[in-house]
Amino acid sequence: MRVADKLEDIKKQINEASLKANRNPDKVKVIAVTKYVSTERASEALEAGIDNLGENRDEGLLEKWKVLGDKPKWHFIGTLQTRKVKNIIDKVEYIHSLDRLSLADEINKRSLGKKVKCLVQVNVSQEESKHGLTAEEAIGFIKQLGSFENISVEGLMTMAPFTNDEEILRSCFRQLRKLRDQVQALNLVFAPCSELSMGMSNDFSIAIEEGATMVRIGTALVGEDG
Ligand SMILES: *Cc1c(COP(=O)(O)O)cnc(C)c1O
Prior knowledge:
The protein is of the alpha/beta class. 40% of the residues lie in helices and 18% in strands. The protein is built from nine helices and eight strands. Helix 7 links the parallel strand 6 and strand 7 (195-197). The protein starts with a helix and ends with a helix. The relative contact order is 0.18. Pyridoxal 5'-phosphate (PLP)-binding protein, which is involved in PLP homeostasis. It holds the Pfam family Ala_racemase_N. Keywords: Pyridoxal phosphate.
């Protein structure tokens, strides 16, 4: 199926979810996660009107960046090894996976003097397999980020547990939103923290109902093998 058709379908769902929650659908940024697909398919997504692409490995990002360059805004959404920061720092608009001070230190050093937009990854569901800070750790961590002058904490990111249980998913997203509100209430200049990056192919509607401002959609938008 063409990306354009899938996008049309997803936009309908975004509108429905936004309407339910009394939100403006324009406030939900769609990030097409292209980690499973070819550069051609990623390019098709851009032609269909997508502006934001997400990759979870530096190799994948660099391969597509060589062809697509700065046409899309790039989002780094995967676990980021400290030694890989230098490969992607000048190419990405957002890093969604800030989860430790050593990584913050490296991003800060390599930032080429400009502010790097970061999201702090929180493991709300506390699944062993997922990276990110616990909700309890997150606030203390964010306060410490104030010592890195080139890091801007634009928001929070989470991956929901792997389940179809709507209540579990909703509760996870809601907890992230509450945490975001707590951070905002601190009024930290380096942490405007307005973004909530949450929701993937199977749960983005619920995430939007709970306040997502960025949804990261792979399978349902570009497929797994385009
Ligand atoms: C792969 C991936 C996605 C997209 O997953 P789909 O289920 O294919 O939509 C979103 N976020 C992260 C962090 C990912 O690694």
